[in-house]
């Protein structure tokens, strides 16, 4: 924990939309009288039919979350049409290609035309309001067009990260019974092609075995690389776009009509379809984007996330476009052509606000300061981070070297489930402490509880809950409301449980300490240990597997796997490599194990429950403090695990 404080500086305060006084006043109103507060701020977006009801939410019983429920609006209209009269020629999207010599600017007028045409293509091929459309795309503007086109006609999009395997894509297609897929021939990252269309073809075969038949695939041509083609099913985007009108009226959507599904990992089972709806989500994404980044009209804003994650949804597409911002979309990777790419792009496009992940900061910090200092970065005004706790060393480097001690570092804590920022500094209002996400956003009521659910007051360390609803909150798990209740509202009755541990210091600052459940955070990507375990045991030589996280200097957490083989088989380096390959194929490269330990047995209680606490300690090379092992069925197992540990100091 760092004890340093960085007070709000004069220049930051001078232009800030929210200062300390306003923060305190607004915050108080937002939690004392949410109806009044959100009734006012809900009007930041345009409504076809204004709402008369604001908040109607309950965290008990069947759990029901409704905001602005009798209002009608359209997300695509709010992100595009309403800006056209005065800002049609303003750049909406700056696209920076993987290749540093290729970029493109898309104005709001052009965005309107692309989105309308794409919406008409969807309609032409039978997509209707409420249908689920899967989007499996690289970071190209067409990914944003696809999302907005769905929103325009009321279709529900499910964006699947382009780094996921065909298996993972198939699982997501099947879960929401999506029969229309939008993809691309190939993606391009760091000069290497990513076979998105081929992956899609494989996924469609897998999905068909589970009785979900994809009937149309709309394919954007990016590289021109060779791919398979199913006539009648596969459609070229550029050909289809030419056949339809450049105008498509936005459908009137109820505030609580679904906008999108986004799959995310939990501590058990397969990934859950987090469902977000229309009105509350957009109000919250737009409002947080404006105040947290202190966004002023004309600023150039860059979030380096992928649209396949929630950060890309809320802070590349929906929040910025609803605010008529200029949002930069980057196709490539931070280390191509070299580790100076981010800073080069910042200079090239005069980026004012930059938002990235601690894992990227740590890895670029390791590359040395020269990559940074050879650029000017004089356009930068604000630096944001998201995805995992940022260690104070990385924070300081980001602040001192990247930001030249001039730009506040805004550490935003939130989740796929929360739709937008929850605990975060506001640049003009919050004195910063490196490593702390600081204070709750408007309307957010955090609470720390111990394992028994007792509420902890003052300075304390506990489990982070949120006690009342905010407009951006997820509404349900798609197709499984019971799982929604079980996952988030049953551990601590009547409270939303985040799954994160957190400390509150004597100044009331919040410090997120990481997940307290069986979810890993690897390079800012969420992964369930159960998912990796099930990928491992699907290999024919593996009889049992247990997966835990361990501290990793760049990734935050590394993936440590204990694997028990089928009788008669021996572990080897070749088999290790094969298992890594197998997990990559089952889930995707982000899930590749870092360490594999072959273990003849796993530590289990007499009732057969794996004792993960012990496995975590051994993976951390901290087995001096294994705690009570007397309940183990076979204590000898532990000695073998320690002797063969893979993280020996
Ligand atoms: C972690 C990403 C510390 C946390 C937006 C959370 C963070 C999970 C931070 C959600 C942060 C995210 N400081 N931890 N600033 N931001 N996390 O759903 O464990 O991909 O529960 O959403 O990431 O990950 P998700």
Automatic annotation (TrEMBL):
Residues that, per the record, bind ATP: 387-389, 411-416, 500, 515, 526
Residues the entry annotates as binding Mg(2+): 537, 539, 542
Residues covered by the AMP-dependent synthetase/ligase domain: 81-468
Residue ranges of domain AMP-binding enzyme C-terminal in the record: 531-609
Keywords annotated in UniProt: Acetylation, ATP-binding, Ligase, Magnesium, Metal-binding, Nucleotide-binding
Catalysed reaction equations from the record: acetate + ATP + CoA = acetyl-CoA + AMP + diphosphate
PANTHER family listed in its UniProt record: ACETYL-COENZYME A SYNTHETASE, ACETYL-COENZYME A SYNTHETASE 1
Functional summary from the UniProt entry: Catalyzes the conversion of acetate into acetyl-CoA (AcCoA), an essential intermediate at the junction of anabolic and catabolic pathways. AcsA undergoes a two-step reaction. In the first half reaction, AcsA combines acetate with ATP to form acetyl-adenylate (AcAMP) intermediate. In the second half reaction, it can then transfer the acetyl group from AcAMP to the sulfhydryl group of CoA, forming the product AcCoA.
NCBIfam families: Ac_CoA_lig_AcsA, PRK00174.1
Name of this chain's protein: Acetyl-coenzyme A synthetase
Organism: Rhizobium aouanii
Gene: acs
């Amino acid at each position: 924990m760092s004890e340093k404080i960085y007070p709000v500086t004069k220049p930051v305060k001078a232009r800030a939309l929210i200062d300390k006084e306003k923060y305190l006043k607004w915050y108080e109103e937002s939690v004392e009288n949410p109806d009044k507060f959100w009734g006012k701020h809900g009007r930041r977006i345009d409504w076809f039919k204004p709402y008369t009801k604001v908040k109607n939410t309950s965290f008990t019983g069947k759990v029901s979350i409704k905001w602005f429920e009798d209002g009608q609006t359209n997300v695509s209209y709010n992100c595009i049409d309403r800006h056209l009269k005065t800002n049609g020629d303003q750049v909406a999207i700056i696209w920076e290609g993987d290749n540093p010599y290729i970029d493109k600017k898309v104005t709001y007028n052009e965005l309107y035309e692309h989105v309308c045409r794409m919406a008409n293509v969807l309609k032409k091929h039978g997509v209707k309001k409420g249908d689920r459309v899967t989007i499996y795309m690289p970071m190209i503007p067409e990914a944003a067009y696809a999302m907005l086109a769905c929103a325009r006609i009321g279709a529900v999009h499910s964006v699947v990260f382009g780094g996921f395997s065909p298996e993972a894509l198939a699982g997501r297609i099947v879960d929401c019974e999506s029969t229309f897929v939008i993809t691309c021939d190939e993606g391009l990252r760091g000069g290497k092609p990513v076979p998105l269309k081929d992956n899609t073809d494989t996924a469609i075969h897998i999905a068909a075995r589970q009785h979900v038949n994809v009937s149309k695939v709309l394919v954007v041509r990016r590289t021109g690389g060779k791919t398979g083609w199913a006539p009648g099913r596969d459609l070229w985007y550029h050909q289809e776009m030419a056949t339809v009108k450049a105008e498509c009226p936005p459908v009137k959507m109820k505030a609580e009509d679904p906008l999108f599904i986004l799959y995310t990992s939990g501590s058990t089972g397969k990934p859950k379809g987090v469902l977000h709806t229309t009105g509350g989500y957009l109000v919250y994404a737009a409002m947080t984007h404006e105040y947290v980044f202190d966004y002023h009209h004309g600023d150039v804003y860059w979030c380096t996330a992928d649209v396949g994650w929630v950060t890309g949804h809320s802070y590349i597409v929906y929040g910025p476009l609803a605010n008529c911002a200029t949002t930069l979309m980057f196709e490539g990777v931070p280390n191509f052509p070299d580790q100076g790419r981010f800073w080069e792009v910042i200079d090239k496009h005069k980026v004012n606000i930059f938002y990235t992940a601690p894992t990227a900061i740590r890895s670029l910090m390791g590359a040395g300061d020269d990559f940074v200092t050879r650029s000017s970065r004089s356009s930068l005004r604000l630096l944001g981070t998201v995805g995992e706790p940022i260690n104070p060393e990385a924070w300081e480097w980001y602040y001192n070297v990247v930001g030249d001690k001039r730009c506040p570092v805004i550490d935003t804590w939130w989740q796929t489930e929360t739709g937008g920022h929850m605990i975060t500094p506001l640049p003009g209002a919050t004195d910063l402490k490196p490593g702390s996400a600081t204070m709750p956003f408007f309307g957010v009521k955090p609470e720390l509880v111990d394992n028994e659910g007792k509420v902890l007051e003052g300075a304390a360390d506990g489990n982070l809950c949120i006690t009342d609803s905010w407009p951006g909150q997820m509404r349900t798990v798609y197709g499984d409301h019971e799982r929604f209740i079980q996952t988030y509202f049953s551990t601590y009755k009547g409270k939303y449980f985040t799954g994160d541990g957190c400390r509150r210091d004597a100044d009331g600052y919040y410090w997120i300490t990481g997940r307290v459940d069986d979810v890993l955070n690897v390079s800012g990507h969420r992964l369930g240990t159960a998912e990796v375990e099930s990928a491992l045991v699907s290999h024919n030589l593996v009889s049992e597997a247990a997966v835990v996280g361990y501290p990793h200097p760049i990734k935050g957490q590394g993936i440590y796997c204990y694997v028990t083989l089928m009788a008669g088989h021996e572990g080897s380096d070749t088999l290790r490599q094969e298992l890594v390959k197998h997990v990559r194929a089952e889930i995707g490269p982000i899930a590749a194990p870092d360490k594999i330990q072959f273990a003849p047995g796993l530590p289990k209680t007499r009732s057969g429950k794996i004792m993960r606490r012990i496995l975590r300690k051994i993976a951390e090379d901290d087995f001096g403090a294994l705690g009570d092992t007397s309940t183990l069925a076979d204590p000898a197992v532990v000695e073998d695990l320690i002797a063969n540990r893979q993280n020996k100091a």
